[in-house]
Design brief:
200 residues; 30% strand; binds S-adenosylmethionine; globular; seven-stranded mixed beta sheet; 7 strands; Rossmann fold; alpha/beta
Length: 200
């Protein structure tokens, strides 16, 4: 997978390029999440390790084995356990009705891949389960504070509401916020925040 080579290179240094603190939107809403938690595009582990520190059972999936090895090192350094699995999200099949929550932070994928994945994510949630997502919007293209430059990978609240038809939104908003999450995500950013509960 070509994307894996790019991400493995980005993660090669010992530095945690997105930091070791959790994403702020996740931290604000973590109390709503029940396990097991599936964390998509987990990268170097900051979000999975945070959730594990709250006592949640977390499975972090990502295409980069280098990133997930760092995730396991971060977990060990904090004295928590996380499960990790190297997967290509373009073909990943999460088990149905298996997760109390799914977390997706900066998981930017081509739209067709994302739509397929989100349909499966909705099925992977148990009734009452939560999807928590933050990603860059198209407004981020005008900024130099992180995120992909391909508009096809950027998200909107309206698109996410369509992609999760059986989830009731509690938060579905496009905002500007100061992001301080490592060297690649720092500065004023345009993001969509989506928090929704599976109805049935
Ligand atoms: C911007 S990083 C975000 C990492 C993490 N969620 C965080 O917030 O720190 C995007 C992640 O998506 C992963 N990724 C991109 N395309 C992927 C694919 N097709 N399959 C699996 N992982 C993918 C990359 O390996 C990378 O770790």
């Amino acid at each position: 997978m070509k994307v894996t080579i790019v991400w493995n290179e980005r993660y090669t240094s010992d530095e945690y390029v997105y930091g070791t603190e959790p994403n702020a939107f996740l931290a604000e809403n973590a109390k709503l999440l029940k396990g097991p938690v599936l964390s998509l595009a987990e990268g170097e582990g900051r979000n999975a390790v945070f959730l594990a520190s709250l006592g949640l059972d977390v499975l972090g999936v990502d295409g980069s084995e280098v990133g997930l090895a760092k995730a396991q090192r971060l977990a060990a350094s904090k004295g928590v356990t996380i499960r990790t699995e190297v997967v290509d999200l373009a073909s990943y099949q999460p088990p149905e009705n298996a997760f109390g929550a799914v977390v997706s932070i900066s998981a930017h994928l081509p739209r067709a891949i994302r739509r397929r994945l989100h349909g499966l994510v909705e099925r992977a949630l148990k009734p009452g389960g939560i999807i928590l997502l933050e990603a860059y919007t198209k407004a981020q293209l005008a900024r130099n504070t992180g995120g992909p430059k391909d508009p096809d990978m950027l998200m909107s609240a309206a698109a996410l509401e369509k992609e999760f038809p059986n989830c009731e939104p509690m938060v579905s908003q496009e905002i500007e916020r100061e992001v301080v999450e490592g060297q690649f995500h720092t500065g004023l950013a345009s993001v969509v925040q989506f928090l929704a509960r599976k109805i049935s």
